[in-house]
Each structure stands twice: as C-alpha cells, then as structure tokens.
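Journal club prep — side note

Before the paper discussion, L.F. wants everyone to see what a predicted structure for a comparable chain looks like in token form. Sequence:
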Amino acid sequence: MTLRARLVERAQPVLDRMPPVPDAKAQLSQDGGVCPADGAQLAFDPWNPHAHRCPTCGTTYSDARHHAHWARAQHLWLAERAAHLATVHALTGDAHAAQRAREMLAAYYDRYHRSPNRDNVLGPSHLFFSTYLESIWILDFIAAAHLLRVCGALHDTDIDAISAIADEAATIIGEFDEGMSNRQTWNSAALTAIAVWFGDEDLAATAVTGRHGLLGHLADGFRADGMWHEGENYHLFAMRGLLLGLQWAAVAGIDLLDDDELAAHLGVALMAPAVTALPDHTFPARKDARFGVSLAHPAYIECWEAGLTLLGTRAPDELPPWLDTLYRTSTRPALTYDAYLHEAGETVPPHRTRADLSWWAAWMMQPTLPAAVPLPALVIRNCVLDAQGLALLRYGDRYVSLECIGGGDGHGHPDRLHLTVHADGVHWLADPGAGSYVTRDLFWYRSTLAHNAPRLDGVDQSPGDQARCTAFDVKGSWASVTGRWGPVQRTIVTGPRWIVDVTTLESPEARVLELPWHLAGQLTVVTEGSWRRVDDGHEFVSDMEEFVPTTPGPMLVRAMLGDRTLALHLAGDATLLRVNGPGLPGGPRAPFVMQRVSGTTARLAAVIDPTGSVTAIAIGADEVVVHEGGVSTVVRVAVPETVVTSDRERTVLAGARAPARVTPAILGQRPARSSAVAMRVADAPALDGSLDGFDLAESLALDDELCYFRSEEPYPGANQFAAQAWVNWDLDTLYVAVEVITSTMVLRAPDAPTLRLDNEPDDIHSDGIQVYCRLASDPVLGWLIRPWDDALLARTIGPDPAAVALQGGWERTPDGYRITAAIPCDGLGHDMHAAVHFDVLVNEMRNDRVRRAGQLAWSGGPGWVYLRGDRHDPSRLGVLELHE
C-alpha cells in the first residue's frame, strides 16, 4: 500500500467525527499523566479527554491534572491532523478533508488567544508551558494553513484569523532565544514557517541565517564529528526541527544546502547516530536521554528519508543501507513523542514500512529507495568522537564504549569514564539516561553513583571537571582505550572473548575510590563468603552490605538475564559492596555491586566475560592474567602502551592522543562582575525588620531591567518591583538588609499543600530573597529566606537543603517589605579576607500566578527566570569589599 493511500485511510476517523479540542492550557506536573498506583505513564487517547487509562494496571483516571497533561499531546496531535488532512486534500482533492482541516484550524482562532501566557516552565507560550512546544504546534498549524491556502481552500476570514495567531506566535517565539539549545532549532524553524506565511523576507533571513538560526545550528550545533553537542537524544530532536526548517527556508528562497560544505556537514550529522548506535539499533542513553529508544522510530526514519532527498547525489553512501536496516528492525512499543504523534491510538506494526510514515514524508521522501547494500564499515567501526569524548570499541555484535569528557553542561551528567557494554544481545552495563524531569529520581540518574563510573570520597564528580581520551588503538581483534579524569585513569582492553578493565588512582593525599557496576539481570556473588550490613548514607540507595570473602583473592559476580550469562571477575584487594538502588527508568529498584579502595595510590581491576570462556584470573603488580582452561593471556597495562601476550601472539596497543580541541557550542560573554562595599559594625543591628543599627553609607541597587530575570512579562519598572540592600559585617557574620518595592506581596504558607509541579522547590514561588556568599575558594553557601507571620522562614540552598534558624526579622513597608538577617560566615574577619563573593536575589510572586513572575539579582541579568529554581551560577557572584 502506498503512503498516499495509507494517509487517506488513516484520515478516516477524523473525517468521521471532529476530535475534542482542549480548552485547557497544557500543564507540566509531577502527577499529571502518571498512574498513582504504579507510576506508569497513562496512555494518550486523542478521543477521550477525561478518561486516562494506565496500560500497566488498567485503571482509568480523570482529574484536572491528568486532563491538563492530556491537553499537551492533544493540541499537538490536532495540529498534526490538520496538516495530515490538508495533505490528503492537496494530493487527492478531497473537499471533506479540506473542510475538516479548516474546522480544526478554526477551533483555535479564539481559543489560542484566550489561553493565558503565564505560569510557563521554559519560555512564553499560550497553549503549552514551554516555547518549543508552541513552535512544534505552530509548524504543523502553519503547514496545514499554507497547503489549504495554496489549494484555495481558505476564506479571507480564515486567513486573517490564522495571521493573527501566527503574528502572536512569532512575537513570543522570537523574543525567547535559547541560543544553541536543541529547542531553539524548532523555534527557528517555526519562525521560518511564519515568515513564509507572511512573505516576510527579513524574518526569514533572521530565522535562517542568524547566529542562533538554522545556519548557526547546522554549522556549530552539530559538531565536527556530526553529533549534536547535547548527545544522541537531542541530536535526533534537533535534526527533525532543522530539516523542517530547511524545507521552509527553501520555500522562502533560502537554500542553505547550495553550499557544498554545509551539505557535507549535514551528511555527517545525519549518520552520526548510526556511528554510536547500540547493536539493537537503540541509541545509548547518554546525558539527559530516554532509555531504550529505537532508532527505527518513524520520527527518526523520516529524518533520514528527508536527508536523502535534500542531499540527493551528495547524500552519504551509507544512508540508503542504514534506512534499509531500520526498516528491517523489529518495532518497539510506541513512544509518545511531542514532535510526532502520528501513530497515537494505533497498533504498532512488527516492522515499519515507508507507508507507515506521516504527512511530512509524503512531501519529502523519494518515490523509491536506492537498492540496499550491506551497511558499510564506515558506520559500524571503532573510533573516538572527540567532540563527544566518546570512545567506541566494537567486535562482532559486542559494543563497548568509554565516556571521556562528561560534564554538567549541555544536559551532561557527572559520568566521566563511564563504561557501557552491550554483548550477546544484552545491554549488560548501561547508561540509564535521565528518566523523568519532574520526579525526584532525576537527581539519582544525574549522579555518578547511577553510572558505571568512578567517584572519589563518596561524592559525585564535579560539574566543572573534565576528562579526556589519552590513548586509543586497534590491532586486529584487540583494542584499547585509556581515559583520564583528574587523578583517576581507566583503561579498557577488549579481545575476541572478554574485556579487561583497569582503573587506577594516583593522588598526593589519601582518597577513597569507588567504582559501581550496574549489571543487568539477576546478580549472584559466586565467591564464598558472608555479608554484613553497613551504613549507606545516600538518599536513593538502601540495604548496603559489605562482602566478607572466606578466602582472599579475586571475586566472581555472575549476572543472568534469561538464558544469557555474564561473569564479572574482580580483583580481591578492594572491598566489594552490594547496594539496592533505582533501576533503569520506569523499572523496579535493582541491586548493583560496587568496589571500594582507598589510599594515595590504588588500583581496581576486572575482567568482563560475556562468553563464559574465562575460568580464572590473577592480578599482578601491573598486569592481569586471564586463564581460559589451559590457555593464559597476560594483559600488561602501562604508559605509554598496553601489551597483550599469549602463547600464540603478542599485541602492542599504544595510540597516545594529544588533548582534543573542541570549540564550545555556546560562545557567550562572561558578565561583568558587580562590586560594592560592606561596612563593618561594632555591634549587631537590631535584625527586627527595621534598619536600626545598620550602617547605611553604602548600598546595593536592584532597580532596573538589567537586574531582572523575567518570565512572560518584561520588567514592570522600578516603581512596581525593585530592591535596595545594605550589607554590614563583623568577625563571623554578614548582616543583610533588603528593602523590596512590590505592588503585591504573596507569601506561601509553610504548611501549604505541595504544588507537585516539577523538581524545583515550592518556596521559590513566594516573595522572598536568596543570599549567596563565598570566602576565597571555599564552596558557595546559599540561603533562601522568606517572610511568614512574625518570623523568617529560612533554609540552606544546595544538594541537601535543610531548614535553619537564622537570626532576623521582617516587616511590611508602605511600598512592600523589608528583611533583615544575620548570615553566618565563619572566619570572615580574618586578615586574609579583604573581600567576599556575594549576591542577593529577590523573588517576585503575584496573586494570579502559580509560578513566580520574575527575579531581581544584584549581580545582574538580564535573562529568563525559567529553570533557575534556587540555583545560581557561582561565576555570577559579585564582590563585596570589607571596609573597616
């Protein structure tokens, strides 16, 4: 069946009856769309706005939170269906399809403007809670309108109403520039489509060729190795937005692919996910990715189909066989995907065909694919992606990778030197990705302990740390990679049947080195011994036990999944721990094991055996001996080379690598550092909300738009929202007074029901202040302080916030309120501290909102308040000079 015939068939339910159109604005919350009994995502049914069924337990739920969650997908699905029907009309002349598409557009003529642009999570939006969702929606909405107008199926009144929506959408999308974010690709594509609708050449030029437009994202967002700078998950999302934008740009008369260099770079970017793909054709869940997502999802297949068409004869040779491979890949359960809801409510076929694709494919893909040939080794190969810091070692159907960059930026996780192993059809050692953005376990998946990565002294790797690949070599069936993170080095050596892992620590002071092993399946410690309970001291883990072997020597851990087995042989000079923690996202809790060793120099060694060939191992001073029955192989890991020696061969693996030069994706300028003076006082001020006892000679002003982090509305002006602060000091304390001008004062009760919106603390959605200070190179200390009744409510800011009893008070003033508080800073008055790094922020709440409206910062904005939570970039802190 051809795609055209299939599109006509799939349009029939919508032609038979008009789907429900939500009046609700979409809302992001912790409980909306989630089964309260088992935590499963409720199924999206576009025909049932108030009956949301759990696919796990079968229970049906109906309340406002679930409806607001459903509205997110429904608004997007309806715009898709309008474009689908407009395509059917354009291809077949079906007048009923045109009429229904027009009715679906008309449903939003008034509804769009009525939907409030407030309480958003990530950028202004009418129908949604984030700008990028508005961009996805308007792309389909404008596509439908454009096709109907070209076919003469719109009245002038329709065109005027659509133009009013497009104009408003262009305004809110255009003012929220997200730089080199994957979401900005969609924003630029949406602005390009709107430019085509209006015939606006200036808007088209800005959206296409601007620094953060389609050109900037194609040239810089997709790095030299082709991968989007935020990883595979966001690569695939950004790629779809980019290709849609390129199509609209061509309609506007701007064809970026006329440039052969850009076309070649697009070809590399199109194939980058094939290079890192796991053997089961899912993408690795690196960074903030979803786990176990198939590359054969039709939203992704359509990208490769579109790329093949756009590039024509310049398309990479491996692109047609890659598409053929995906069409032969078994289908996984349907994935709810904001940018592709074409299959919603339908049964997923065993394999997808070209006839299963969406309306967009009808306009983009070639009539037939080139003849299939074997997938070239150019795609499936051993390599290092320098920009991603990812080293890949493949052998047959086995996949091994080592993360050699990590970092907390660009959706990154603190997982330097994380090891992934996929062998014999099983993902034995996986990167778990991120799970949900709105549940507490997000902080687990963003921890070092959740990965197969080393950590020091029981804490996560620091976001500012870097790692690099120092050596990489392949010789026949042997390969090795070495990565270094600070004082820790990890070397992986792969052979035909097993893998050697050696992790070393060299430090001037004693450190504790830990290495978790999150193995799939059922874990058994085969070595004889006993277990004793130890304190875990971690929010997410429980039942930590230490293994006490009966005799010293290597230990054997076995993982079984179905009829597949993997053996993990561990050196015996480290403590072995068994821990229970969160499993893979959406799954049950699961045990994992962890090695622990301490000292100034330490080494952890392991042999990973997915074939069952290893009978024993022995650990020497600088070598690992692997016994396979009567055959022994010695792996000597040293600098600058690793040597593998057996009775049959001697292989030298070297491949020392210089540090890679990676251009950052975001080329922002560091803001100028604010500075002011703090006056010393002999006696503590009254701290009762008045200014009694404060030296007011020097103050800090927060009274213009350059200090304002906004949400949907711009800075209201100093007469509506501003602040003035004074800071005094003595030997161990900063005394802070903040006087706030505000037209309204909204306080959140300490016993108010939790908002359950996301992972941000509820108390940021209240009038109050945040104070940060740092002495020299000490860690930044932070406090959130807010008024309530006749006292101050205060807590620390950080990974483990805790309520504190700060000395202080507050009082209302004719124009707002004033807070005075004593901030403890031990050692402040020592001679070495002539200055202190400092900042004060003021949260703005309004009566008609659920989320705060904005935030003033002494160190300066301007910017957006979205996703800031109670966090603050330490590099923004100003400097207070301590005057006597």
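L.F.'s comment for the group: The radius of gyration is 29 Å. Keep this in mind when we get to the figures.
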